[in-house]
Automatic annotation (TrEMBL):
<dbReference type="Pfam" id="PF03466">
    <property type="entry name" value="LysR_substrate"/>
</dbReference>
<keyword id="KW-0805">Transcription regulation</keyword>
<protein>
    <submittedName>
        <fullName>LysR family transcriptional regulator</fullName>
    </submittedName>
</protein>
<dbReference type="Pfam" id="PF00126">
    <property type="entry name" value="HTH_1"/>
</dbReference>
<dbReference type="InterPro" id="IPR036388">
    <property type="entry name" value="WH-like_DNA-bd_sf"/>
</dbReference>
<dbReference type="InterPro" id="IPR005119">
    <property type="entry name" value="LysR_subst-bd"/>
</dbReference>
<comment type="similarity">
    <text>Belongs to the LysR transcriptional regulatory family.</text>
</comment>
<dbReference type="InterPro" id="IPR050950">
    <property type="entry name" value="HTH-type_LysR_regulators"/>
</dbReference>
<dbReference type="InterPro" id="IPR036390">
    <property type="entry name" value="WH_DNA-bd_sf"/>
</dbReference>
<keyword id="KW-0804">Transcription</keyword>
<keyword id="KW-0238">DNA-binding</keyword>
<dbReference type="InterPro" id="IPR000847">
    <property type="entry name" value="LysR_HTH_N"/>
</dbReference>
<feature type="domain" description="HTH lysR-type">
    <location>
        <begin position="5"/>
        <end position="65"/>
    </location>
</feature>
């Protein structure tokens, strides 16, 4: 069986060596000299060898045995490793270091998270962040496979996800997106039936219409485009119109128009998705708490 080497005893050994005596080591450790002597004797018993030569009563100088000389760098190495691990764990518990892994739908990723993350990491300069940007379905898959600590997404059919917790934070309305010169562009709001005579393009958020009166539009779409950049390019080119949540609409666009869908009014709820009964890492829990504090919940 390997000896149970206590870090405190190793420190006492190194201090006695570096400070050239038991008295000085006792002062540094804020212990009595007999206590330091007992600590060293116990360490020697565990190791099965003497670390110090018998002391000269006149000089009280502590001299290492050959075994002690060999063990000294090993003891220092063990102390450094212990202190490094302890420091890493302390920083991790204070979310000042470690690794935060999150995934988000593009709308929140581009509209909300940059400012949130910038403020959060101001207080955690050593924190590493891995960020994944994808649609809700892909975000949920990353949560399920534990590729990320948690995701930010819309939870389609929440009752089907009994293994997950959902904390709703944001919501936006579904609207129609078309070129500014499109016949619908001058409308202040739209009913879903007004869209049936126009070429429709489905996208990853079109599922939001499934349980509404506008579900018939899903079967009328001629195109499906999953990538948002490609979708916007096709709408700008006049290939068709689409429905999008407000957060997903490119706010700086000068070529497109967003018209709220009033009949039916469809609202998307976005929030934090995480696995039930699974603890988050300290950085992930800290960022979750920070997000709720800044954004609130629905």
């Amino acid at each position: 069986m390997f000896p149970d080497l206590k870090i405190t005893q190793l420190r006492h050994f190194v201090w006695v060596t570096e400070l050239k005596g038991f008295h000085a080591a006792a002062e540094k450790a804020h212990r009595t000299q007999p206590a330091i002597s007992l600590s060293i004797r116990d360490l020697e018993t565990k190791l099965g060898e003497s670390l110090f030569e018998k002391r000269n009563v006149k000089t009280a100088k502590a001299e290492l045995t050959p075994f002690g000389l060999y063990f000294l760098p090993k003891a220092k190495e063990l102390i450094k490793h212990h202190d490094r691990v302890a420091e890493d764990m302390r920083l991790l518990s204070e979310h000042k270091a470690g690794h935060l892994r999150i995934a988000s739908v593009p709308s929140i990723a581009s509209r909300v998270l940059p400012e949130l993350l910038e403020e959060f990491i101001t207080h955690t300069p050593d924190l590493h962040v891995s960020f994944f940007d994808d649609n809700s379905e892909a975000v949920l898959k990353m949560v399920e496979t534990q590729k990320v600590d948690f995701g930010i997404a819309h939870l389609f059919h929440q009752e089907e996800h009994s293994d997950k917790d959902f904390i709703p934070i944001w919501q936006d309305q579904i609207g129609v997106v078309c070129p500014i010169d499109h016949p619908l562009a001058q409308k202040s709001s739209l009913c879903w039936e007004e869209l049936t005579s126009h070429r429709l393009i489905n996208n990853g958020t079109s599922r939001l219409l499934e349980d509404s009166d506008a579900s018939a539009l899903l079967g009328l779409s001629q195109f499906y485009v999953s990538n948002m950049i490609s979708l916007i390019a096709m709408i700008e080119a006049g290939l068709g119109i689409t429905t999008l949540p407000w957060y997903a609409f490119p706010q700086d666009s000068t070529t497109l128009r967003f018209i709220p869908l009033a009949e039916p009014q469809v609202v998307r709820r976005l929030g934090i998705v995480l696995l039930k009964n699974k603890s988050l890492t300290p950085p992930a829990q800290a960022f979750l708490d920070f997000t709720i504090e800044k954004m609130g919940t629905l």
